[in-house]
Give the backbone structure.
Amino acid sequence: MSTYILLNTIEKAADVVGKTWPLYSFVTSNPLSGYENTHFINAVKKAQGLTGSRVFPDVGMFKQAWELGEIDATVLNALLIENGMTESPAYYLDQLEAIKYDEIENPNHRVDKIMVKWLSVFMDEGLAEWQMPNKEKGFYKAWSILASYDKEIGKALDVQLPKTNTEALEKLLNAYSEQEQQAIFEYHLAALPGWTGYIKFRAETNSLWEQKYSITLTDYLAVRLWVSKALKASIVPPKSTNGELETMLQLQYVWLKAWEKSWQQQFVTNIKSPNTISKPTHKNVPDAQFVFCIDTRSELIRRNIESKGNYETFGYAGFFGIAMDYTQLEDGISRKSCPPILGSAYQVSETAQEHKTADLKNYKKSVKRAKFTSYFLVRMKNMLPSAFGYVEGSGIFYGMSLLIRTLFPGSLYQPQRKNEGSFENSCTPQIGHTHTKETSIDIPLEEKVAIVKTAFDLTGWRTFAPVVVFAGHGSHSANNPFGSSLDCGACAASPGRHNARMLAKLANLSEVRKALRENHDIRIPEDTVFIGAEHNTTTDEIVLFDAEVPPTHAKRLSELKVALLKTQETATQERLGVQTKSIAAAHVKTNNWSETRPEWGLAKNAGFVIGSRELTKNMNLGGHCFLHSYDWELDIEAAALEAIMQGPMVVTQWINNHYYFATVDNHQYGGGSKIAHNITGKFGVVQGNGSDLKAGLPLQSVNETDDKMYHRPLRLSVLIQAPKERVQAILEKFPHLKALLDNEWIYLMVMDPTEQNEVSLYEEHMVWKAPEKVEVFAEMV
């Protein structure tokens, strides 16, 4: 077999694993994204067959939903009957209770253990003091040089190892057909999906570590199969013996569909209620306008802001339409700050504001001191000569620190946050193209105008308030390896404030406003000021980066800050369920090193509304829905809707499926319990002293207790307020979007304003039904 065919076979096999994102930019994504071109039921069936994972909610989750009335009896009974199941729901719950998952010992446990050991030392990104030698030669070559010294396999490698990874695979697999080879590759890649997913991430993003120390899936497979040979372990996947479990998949799917359809019915009933849809207020100019991310956590803060005065809010993907990388002022590292599916077109950094160069220098000096102190302490702890003495000598100080952080976490919150992001008061963002690495505001005027215009087009903007706030969001929590998962997913798990500040900067430029007025008839009043801001989702504080706001707006700004403080108070009361000292309670929760749930993130996400704020303004959506502002009347050519469906709709599906799979099988697709987490290589988490790399959210992020769910594992239901014919035209134009619907990775409902806002549910092959009607799903193949 040729090398080309071999590599192509590996590429096909790699679909069995998704990408594992590093802790410092942990993005929630669909772990079965490689199967999105096949039907959901077939994708999960294959995943279950390869890994033995649970791919549907277990009986406990269905019972919880049934007892809470979240599954409508009429819907469930109709689906059961239509699929040839004539017994009662109670009978089928007993059937689900009887499912037994195979709990046999992993036959390749020894192989996995050895691979984890080698992967940990090779892929380390600066945590270990002593580095594996020969890393610059690549994983396979570095391993082959040292393999004979491994006591567990060295003696068994009684032949000279091939020189290259492809030669190694060809020598082992020449007796197998291409189809058999693909099955072997899938089996071994799926054995450690977290580690192989991170190899996939490094290769596809061409990270700095990958450029310096290359590791490919071909390397991994070559090493793993030779380790298997040394241990006399079978390289061929075993045949499935749990036929009873396979027969239960259809019953589980019926219950899941009933749960999802019940949610859709209730949602449509609520959103069409006469008391829900508010009347448009196009003629009223608000005192201030806010643009938040479409994130489910924004719905609560938007409701609370709107209740504090004449304020209008919008939802827009939290990278604010700027496909950029951001260079951090603290360490000079450049990180992605836009959706993973987009390539970064721009590079954004910071420069000192006029007359504030000295402030910036002082900030950099303080950061440099803090970095040196941190580096020194880490070196002292990690270096073998000093480790024991350091522990003995510093124990009392660490003990006192731990005691204070345990007893008074809330009191430490403000001091610890004091200097975080303080450079915004002395800096202004600057933008350039990524290919030039120049970061002065020198991109062409038409590009600046396009960025700002797109924001107004996609959100359906009609009037401008004197103050417009673009509020990105970030999170703050202590002792949380997965902390970046609580930041902005649209910014590749970075805080959204950098994008918000950049958009505000562009929108304030006089030449941009002039071009918008003369070329696009977008008239921004002279007294309108745009401000970047950050919404802290753990404390509900909104910080305005207002250093450049003119004195003419001082009174408005002062009034706005009072309103935002009141907003924080009522929002924390609602979110935390406390009526007094709620802000202080939020500070305690977010800064407590032992807090397992500093916030719930996007747990409970189930829906995505693309439409006017009037649709949901009078609803408490309980954190269930992403909200993207959209005005179909202003989008005659459907260009804005097309962009929303191609971008945010796909990304929210990734988020939704990440939460789904992390809930139904947290061991396989999630992060497991935080109690046993250990950081490895600065990029990931393992359980105990070594395991598969955890690729998903911890158990505490999706469950209320070990046995009680918090997140509802329901596939995303999208509601678009637009003429149905426009939506159909977009689906016909982009087959990959239609495939997501036909394959049931997403549900789509359209509320047609030209037909009295009647709601239609998309069925396979461009068929539309009323959402109340229950349809039989396609048989499994």
